[in-house]
Specification:
5-stranded mixed β-sheet
Length: 474
């Protein structure tokens, strides 16, 4: 029944309006509109009073000029001419722009309403008064209109009065005042509508982000924050969040792959371990077979422990925990020591090994992790290079980079698999028969990323060439 009468729609409108009022953009728009209105009102008010003062000064200047013209006739001894000029300039009762009069010295003709504003000349004074107080010749409907007058004291016990009707300037000032009030109202109104528009725009963007975030919370990590072409602060924030979501999706996908691979790869050694332990129950503890079964079980356990240690080491390296352990590492000394060691190992496998390390190579790094990563690469080179093959290790300074190259004439890695081999538990078909858990290159990649370095695999024709570039400090 409530839907019939439309209550849900009205309640929704109220809720939307409340959300609009709660937006920072709407509030800021109102504050800016109010602030701008106050500033505009102050500026327009100052302009209005400046115009009032300017009109007053112009009126006083015109009165002074009119008085000066009349006073020339008086100072030339032509008092009669002055009287005639005044009479001539006041011919029509309807013409009241300028008003001229000769008054007695006591000033009774102006009904005691003259409030003097003296000039630098004490013989002259300005005042603002009603037209009806100046002369009885003023029409009745204009007697209460304001007038500006200049009163000059004459030596012959007379007063010369020159006045001007202020009705026209008054009407002009009224129009200006109306314009000022209208402008302030328009500014406030536009500010209000601008605040509503901006608030609705912000709400729309926020609702889009909220909707996307809700879908991500529900488990859809493929969703991304909307980005427009405006490149405003919302777009920049959405870009950062999208990169974070991309990294999170990759991490979650990697975690699922690791979990699946871990379950698959550990199932075989665990089953083998269980079978061996069952067999030991059927054997005499004093026999050689029993001792061998125990030794094999211990080796299986060691393999499992090494796998978990490798996973833990990769996780710590990728998380940046060991970034605080970076020190100055003498790469020349480290590689020369490894070259001497693997020269012996390669000779036992009937493989030619040569190394060339430049002097005074150093960088900021974790020596233990660097040694472990380079050891994994050299182990792979020895493992997959057949007898009679060749392995080389070089390190040079290519400022601003330090370049380490390991090349062999072994099996190599197909081009389409060169990115895939850095994932956990990944082993190529030609490596299935060798001992390993598929975590060596994953650790290498984690160590390289920790040191902000780059690692690239190339075809060595035959074999594989690995290039590692470390940035050098200036």
């Amino acid at each position: 029944m409530l839907q019939t009468f439309g209550y849900p729609a009205s309640m929704k409108k109220i809720s939307d309006f409340q959300q609009l009022l709660n937006t920072t953009a709407f509030r800021l728009s109102l504050i800016y509109a109010l602030l701008f209105s106050v500033i505009a009102a102050a500026a327009l008010s100052i302009m209005y009073w400046v115009m009032v003062d300017k009109i007053k000064l112009q009126t006083d200047e015109r009165l002074r000029l009119e008085t000066s013209v009349l006073m020339k006739s008086y100072y030339n001894g032509q008092f009669d001419a002055l009287v005639q000029t005044i009479q001539r300039r006041n011919p029509d009762k309807s013409t009241t722009f300028f008003i001229y009069a000769l008054l007695n010295r006591r000033g009774r003709d102006i009904n005691q309403t003259f409030n003097p504003e003296y000039t630098t000349d004490r013989r002259q004074a300005y005042s603002t008064m009603k037209l009806g107080d100046i002369s009885h010749l003023i029409p009745r409907e204009q007697k209460n209109d304001p007038a500006r007058v200049l009163l000059t004291i004459l030596p012959n016990k007379r007063l010369l009065l020159v006045g001007v009707d202020l009705n026209q300037p008054k009407q002009l000032l009224k129009k200006i005042f109306s314009v000022v009030i209208s402008a302030i109202i328009i500014i406030v109104t536009l500010g209000l509508f601008g605040g509503i528009f901006m608030g609705r725009s912000v709400l729309k963007r926020i609702d889009a982000v909220r909707k996307t975030a809700g879908e991500i919370i529900e488990g859809d990590l493929t969703q991304r924050m909307p980005v427009t072409r405006r490149n405003d602060e919302f777009d920049r924030l959405s870009g950062v969040l999208n990169r974070m979501l991309q990294r999170l999706e990759v991490s979650m996908q990697g975690m699922r792959e690791v979990t699946d691979n871990l379950a698959h790869d550990l199932r075989t050694p665990l089953n083998r371990l269980r079978n061996r332990l069952e067999l030991t129950q059927l054997k005499n503890p004093s026999t050689v077979d029993y001792q061998k079964a125990q030794q094999d079980a211990i080796e299986d356990v060691d393999t499992l422990i090494n796998t978990f240690n490798s996973l833990l080491n990769i996780a710590q390296t990728e998380s940046g925990v060991k970034r605080n352990e970076l020190t100055q590492v003498d790469i020349s000394q480290l590689l020369n020591g490894m070259g001497e060691l693997y020269e012996v190992v390669a000779e036992e496998e009937n493989i030619s090994f040569d190394y060339s390390i430049a002097n005074h190579l150093a960088l900021q790094g974790n020596q233990q992790l660097l040694a472990q990563a380079l050891t994994n690469l050299l182990d792979n080179a020895v493992k997959y290079t057949p007898e009679g093959g060749r392995i080389s290790l070089t390190a040079i300074n290519q400022h601003p980079m330090l370049l380490i190259t390991i090349a062999d004439t072994g099996l190599g890695i197909p081009e389409d698999q060169r990115e895939h081999v850095f994932k956990r538990f990944v082993r190529l078909d030609n490596a299935r028969s060798t001992v390993g858990n598929g975590l060596g290159l994953s650790l290498v990649k984690a160590v390289i990323d920790l040191h902000n370095a780059t690692l690239q695999l190339f075809d060595h024709n035959p074999g594989l060439k690995v290039e590692i570039k470390f940035p050098l400090d200036d």
